C-alpha cells in the first residue's frame, strides 16, 4: 500500500490531464446511475467520482488511508478504509458498485468480483474500468523500446509494474492486465449480465466520446463494462 499512500500526495496533479478519460466515465455514469441508488465506489482514490456524484447517496472505499483522507476532504462523503476483497458491508446493500481507472488491476479479481456481487442487490449495477492488456499505444511504444520479442513476452505474462517517481522517491506497484474477452468471461462466470462494454483512453481526445463503445474499445487504455447482477 506504500505505492498508493505515497502517490496520494501527487495523484491529482499527475493525472490532471485525464479529462477525456473522465468525460467517458461521467457519460457512462450519467446514463446508468439512478437518483435513488445507494452507490459504493471501490478503490475511490482521491474521490473523483464521489465528488462528481456528490448529490447521490454514495460511499467510498479505499485500501490507502492517504487516498481515503483526500477523498473525504474533496467530496465531503463518507469514506471507509478497506479492501475490496473483504468488503465490510452486509450482503445486498448497494444498488450500484463503481470502480474506475484500474483499482481492480491490483487485486485477486475472483475474490473482488465475489465480494462486489455479494454486496449488490439483485438487479444491481456494476460499472468499472480496468487497464487493458491490448492497449495499442502501449504496444507501439513497447515495440519501439524493447522490440517484438520482449513485447510479446510482456503480453503473455499479463503482468507488469507501474512505476512513478514521487517527491524524488521511486515507487512501483504490480499490475495484472486484462483483455476485453477475459473481462467478459469473468463477468459471466460470476453471474453478471453484461449490458455493454466500452473503453476509455482510446485516442485520448474528444473523439473518445464517440468511439467509446465502438470496435476500437478492444485497444483502448482501459476496458470498461456495465453489468447487472442476475
Ligand atoms: C489508479 S487508482 C484509481 C482511483 C480512482 N478510482 C480514480 O478513478 O481516480 C487505484 C486505487 O485503488 C486503490 N486500491 C488498490 N487496491 C485496493 C484494494 N485491495 N481495495 C481497495 N482499494 C484498493 C488504491 O489505493 C488507489 O486509490
Automatic annotation (TrEMBL):
Keyword entries, A-Z: Membrane, Methyltransferase, Transferase, Transmembrane, Transmembrane helix
Molecular function via GO: S-adenosylmethionine-dependent methyltransferase activity
SUPFAM superfamilies per the UniProt record, alphabetical: S-adenosyl-L-methionine-dependent methyltransferases
TM region positions: 119-140
Annotated InterPro entries: Methyltransf_11, SAM-dependent_MTases_sf
GO biological process, one term: methylation
Protein name, per record: Class I SAM-dependent methyltransferase
Amino acid at each position: 500500500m506504500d505505492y498508493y499512500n505515497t502517490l496520494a500526495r501527487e495523484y491529482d496533479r499527475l493525472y490532471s490531464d485525464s479529462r477525456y478519460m473522465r468525460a467517458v466515465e461521467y457519460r457512462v455514469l450519467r446514463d446508468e446511475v439512478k437518483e435513488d441508488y445507494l452507490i459504493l465506489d471501490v478503490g475511490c482514490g482521491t474521490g473523483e467520482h464521489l465528488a462528481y456524484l456528490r448529490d447521490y447517496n454514495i460511499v467510498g472505499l479505499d485500501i490507502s488511508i492517504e487516498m481515503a483522507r483526500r477523498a473525504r476532504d474533496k467530496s465531503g462523503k463518507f469514506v471507509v478504509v478497506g479492501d475490496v476483497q473483504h468488503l465490510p458491508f452486509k450482503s445486498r446493500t448497494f444498488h450500484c458498485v463503481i470502480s474506475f481507472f484500474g483499482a481492480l488491476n491490483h487485486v485477486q479479481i475472483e475474490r473482488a468480483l465475489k465480494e462486489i456481487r455479494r454486496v449488490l442487490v439483485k438487479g444491481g449495477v456494476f460499472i468499472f474500468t480496468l487497464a487493458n492488456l491490448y492497449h495499442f499505444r502501449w504496444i507501439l511504444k513497447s515495440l519501439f523500446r524493447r522490440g517484438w520479442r520482449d513485447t510479446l513476452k510482456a503480453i503473455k505474462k499479463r503482468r507488469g509494474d507501474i512505476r512513478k517517481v514521487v517527491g524524488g522517491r521511486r515507487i512501483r506497484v504490480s499490475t495484472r492486465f486484462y483483455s476485453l474477452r477475459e473481462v467478459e468471461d469473468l463477468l459471466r462466470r460470476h453471474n453478471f449480465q453484461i449490458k455493454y462494454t466500452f473503453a476509455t483512453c482510446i485516442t485520448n481526445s474528444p473523439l473518445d466520446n464517440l468511439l467509446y463503445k465502438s470496435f476500437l474499445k478492444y485497444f483502448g487504455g482501459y476496458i470498461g463494462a456495465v453489468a447487472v447482477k442476475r
